[in-house]
Design brief:
Length: about 70
């Protein structure tokens, strides 16, 4: 994983609705190998903000950009 706990990252995804930007803070490794636990700070879907998710490290490495953090 290229990211460390405490870093804030932006993930951009393209869809039929256009480009959507998500902002997460990395909490640390997930339960399973190859996944990271993240906390959602910004999302096009308001229901996702304030929740924790596990995201595949490959997806984070491919589309994530560090915004702030350690």
């Amino acid at each position: 994983m290229a990211f460390e706990a405490g870093q804030i990252i932006d993930l951009s995804k393209r869809s039929l609705l256009g480009e959507r930007v998500y902002r997460y803070i990395i909490l640390g490794p997930g339960q399973n190998y190859g996944f990271s636990k993240v906390y959602c700070l910004r999302s096009p879907r308001d229901i996702d903000v304030g929740k924790t998710f596990t995201i595949n490290d490959y997806v984070l490495d491919a589309t994530g950009v560090v915004v702030d953090g350690v």
